[in-house]
Specification:
Blueprint lengths: L7 E5 L4 H12 L3 E8 L6 H14 L3 E5 L1 H17 L6 H20 L4 E3 L5 E5 L2 E5 L23 E2 L8 H10 L21 H8 L7 E5 L4 E5 L21 E7 L4 E6 L4 E12 L9 E4 L7 E9 L2 E11 L6 E6 L2 E12 L2
Parallel strand pairs: 1-2, 1-4, 2-3, 4-7, 8-11
Antiparallel strand pairs: 5-6, 8-9, 10-11, 12-15, 12-17, 13-14, 13-16, 14-15, 16-17
Length: 352
């Protein structure tokens, strides 16, 4: 009798509901599943590891803890701090996916003799005759493909996203309760995983000296309007919670890291017709002179734009109409309808 070997899957397990259901669904689909939890920073909550171990015991599968503290600090935490000090708006979750989860952790898939890596992301991988494409989840409310734009095309054949077809988290929780998973009632995590439950401003306050980022709030005309305790507390387009009074038609139009100045001006100055992205990665090739859907934030509006390649990994992006509050440091992600093509980091604002 022919013996059919089960395909072996490493599931990235955070100790939360999504990744736990992900593992259970794959077992039900006939895969041999193991769990892997990333140890990312020294004061990571022990509950993360305990919950992941409890789920693995419940599912009767192996559990591994993988120490990625050094690379996580250099690639994510240091990037986060240096970006804000440079006046940029970083996206640590997208950066982590690129360098950690689908970078070094993906390599552990091979070290643990697995055929696939699976995560609890809400996304879909479509396979038509060996042609793999990354597709939006079934519902926009949970879609997370924005954060996955840097996946390399050759990785798609070795990735599984079992939750991509689920309409919402409530349905995933229902499955968790049906399977009596130990974490079925666990609250969703939010905020930065490495910030110990505080918001990013408080986290940076604790990391930086009192005068490292303090400076003046100035008007575009040159007038000093007040003082601030850290320019990383502000973002382009911001109108409220500035610590000063401004006119209704004004907002933050620039953050100058060199002078440590937050610049206020009329809101029309926060609109621009183009930008430059660099450090790009592409799942699929772009078509010249084509109008694509693009997003600058996961929750942001879908915009229309053309992209023109200017160097190996640099593109000029031209919008069909001016766009408000472009934030250098964020990622611009390109879509072809429901499919993600790739993207890159916004490095410069330009008006064409």
């Amino acid at each position: 009798m022919e013996i059919v070997m089960k395909k072996r899957v490493m599931v990235a397990m955070s100790g939360g509901v999504d990744s736990s259901v992900c593992a259970a669904l794959l077992i039900n689909d006939g895969y041999e599943v193991i769990g892997a939890t990333m140890w990312l920073f020294d004061d990571q909550e022990e509950q993360v590891f305990e919950d992941a171990r409890a789920v693995c015991r419940h599912l009767e599968i192996e559990h591994h803890v993988i120490d990625l503290r050094d690379v996580f600090k250099s690639e994510v935490i240091d990037y986060f701090k240096s970006s804000y000090l440079a006046g940029l708006t970083p996206n640590p979750c997208a950066k982590c996916n690129r360098t950690i989860k689908f970078g070094v952790l993906f390599e552990w898939m091979h070290k643990l003799s697995c055929d696939f890596m699976a995560t609890g992301h809400y996304a879909v991988i479509e396979n038509k005759g060996g042609n793999y494409r990354l597709k939006r989840a079934s519902t926009d409310r949970k879609d997370q493909v924005y954060f996955l734009h840097s996946i390399r095309p050759e990785q798609l054949a070795h990735l599984l996203f079992p939750l991509g077809s689920y309409p919402d988290k409530a349905e995933v929780r229902r499955v968790a309760h049906e399977l009596a998973l130990p974490v079925a009632g666990k609250k969703d995590s939010d905020g930065l995983c490495f910030a110990s439950g505080v918001d990013y401003r408080t986290y940076l306050d604790e990391m930086l000296s009192s005068n490292e980022a303090a400076g003046s709030i100035v008007h575009s005309s040159g007038r000093v309007l007040g003082q601030h305790h850290g320019y990383y507390r502000y973002t382009v387009g911001q109108k409220r919670n500035l610590g000063i009074d401004i006119e209704k038609n004004e907002c933050v139009i620039d953050i100058d890291a060199k002078s440590k100045e937050v610049v206020i001006g009329v809101e029309s100055l926060a609109y621009h017709s183009g930008l430059v992205i660099s450090d790009t990665t592409w799942i699929e090739a772009l078509v010249e002179d084509h109008v694509y859907d693009v997003k600058m934030f996961n929750w942001g509006y879908v915009l229309k734009a053309k992209l023109e390649k200017t160097a190996d990994d640099t593109y000029h992006v031209s919008f069909d109409s001016p766009v408000r509050a472009i934030a250098p440091g964020q990622y611009l992600v390109v879509y072809d309808g429901e499919y993600v093509l790739g993207g890159g980091s916004i490095v410069k604002i330009e008006d064409w």
